[in-house]
Design a protein that fits this description.
Two copies of one chain form a homodimer. With about 250 residues, chain A is of the alpha+beta class. Chain A is built from nine helices and ten strands. In chain A, the strands form three sheets. Chain A has a four-stranded antiparallel sheet. A three-stranded antiparallel sheet of chain A has the order 1-7-3. A three-stranded antiparallel sheet of chain A has the order 8-10-9, covered by helices on one side. The structure holds a DNA duplex (30 and 30 nucleotides).
DNA sequence: CGTATAATTGACGACGGTCAAGCAAGGTGG
DNA sequence: CCACCTTGCTTGACCGTCGTCAATTATACG
């Protein structure tokens, strides 16, 4: 349990985008009764139809929320990085309408809904901040609808990459314009509504234009300005407050 | 102001899906200081980048939330019917990342954020219920990503129609399997990521298969079972509680 | 009546999917 | 240490869904 303190650092960093936590508030988060677990890659954490009694915190690794269509195709609707609470909504919506699974091996923390509700009741500013996080998720979903619905394949993928870099910066996991990007091309396809073959060709186009380099799960943005332009990326929907986070570091 | 009482009936109906409102709670909603306005068709109510100081209630008519892509294409990410509060999220997110505009002439009510916050602070069950509404919106966004990303054109459109019927039932505006459907084919295209030409041909396919009839802004579902099957529609994401609402009436 | 909006139809082309094969890299076991 | 297998990336050929362009036909409205 000792490493819970360091493990929730990204979450605290994210919440403090809005306001500085008081010592009490910070302590309340650090004192949450978390049961930590390591989960292998490509495993479901929770499934469609579940009625979870606890929330799941991503402490390390990468996960995703997805749906399976009637024809058996997977649509990824969100990726999760350390600091995210992917099923926060399950506190208020009984049944899960999606599944959440790991992409890489993950360290996750489970916190009973009961403890979450008490935390929210006692610290209304934290309640508001968590509330706000789910609204930002919703804003991301809206942007993804636009991404899948309106943009050509290479821009779709570029947009996804821009979002990743911006979100990694918020939790302090970006190294300048370089991030860990352990997403396979098939998974990119599932997130953008494209086939893996077409994803491959589109990524090559991005490389040829000198916008990115991507190898060994490392994504380097070579020209942030041009990539944003190409991707039609405007970070307003991430509600970062500190707009400098969205700019080249 | 006298007709505010009847105008919020759909909203109250929606909130009472979760629990019966007490007399106090109901009165608090009826006593909200609403400024009512009539807005013509195809007008923006609020715009991308705005920092509204009040929330907007749809009392009559139909509206939509949309984004404009860099190439000037419109993506509709949600439709709004009476009882909806399309920009509820603006209470907690300062800047609007979308625009909201009318489809038909609308009667809307504006309630200051201040009054909303007081309502939420005083009646925590109402706060939870409104909170929950935004989570359902997010669930709808997730389903739309899947719709646009994975389903063929005719199914996409059929899915949109299924959702409309289910949502109309919740607020008591469906007449059996028949609803008002004042959405142009271009607007259906903007919501599904399709061209108006292809929407037209897909709708004709739905008609030819005896699934729907659509004329004079009236949509009649001729075979609910088969339409759901064809659309890959599972109402779980609408979180209706009373599942019978999603079934043929 | 003239005009604007919406629905419809046809012809043509492109973006992206499917199928299939080849290649590279990492892990496992004999 | 190398054969083997799995997973992921890459490439080519072909095809279909869907977009674009353009013209025609309602329908409503001033």
């Amino acid at each position: 349990l000792s490493d819970w303190n360091s493990a929730v650092a990204p979450l605290i960093m994210k919440l403090e985008r809005v306001f500085a936590l008081s010592a009490d508030e910070r302590q309340a988060i650090l004192s949450l009764p978390a049961r930590m677990t390591d989960i292998k890659a490509d495993q479901d954490i929770v499934r469609l139809g579940d009625r979870p009694s606890r929330s799941c915190f991503i402490l390390d690794g990468m996960a995703c929320t997805y749906k399976i269509s009637g024809e058996g195709k997977r649509q990824i609707v969100n990726f999760h990085i350390p600091g995210d609470v992917p099923d926060l909504q399950s506190i208020y919506l009984g049944v899960l309408d999606v599944s959440i699974g790991t992409i890489t091996p993950c360290r996750v923390g489970f916190v009973p809904h009961e403890a979450m509700r008490e935390l929210c009741a006692k610290y209304s500013r934290i309640a508001g901040a968590l509330w706000r996080e789910t609204l930002i998720d919703a804003a991301i979903f809206r942007e993804w609808i636009t991404n899948v619905g309106q943009r050509p394949a290479p821009s779709r993928i570029a947009h996804l990459m821009c979002e990743f870099v911006a979100r990694f910066r918020v939790v302090g996991l970006a190294d300048g314009n370089t991030i860990q990007f352990p997403i396979t091309q098939s998974e990119i396809g599932d997130a953008t509504g494209l086939s893996n073959v077409h994803v491959n060709r589109s990524i090559q186009a991005l490389r040829k234009q000198g916008l990115i380099s991507l190898q060994d799960s490392t994504l380097m943005v070579l020209d942030w300005e041009r990539l944003c332009e190409f991707a039609d990326f405007d970070p307003i929907y991430l509600h970062l407050r500190d707009e400098t986070l969205a700019v080249a570091g």
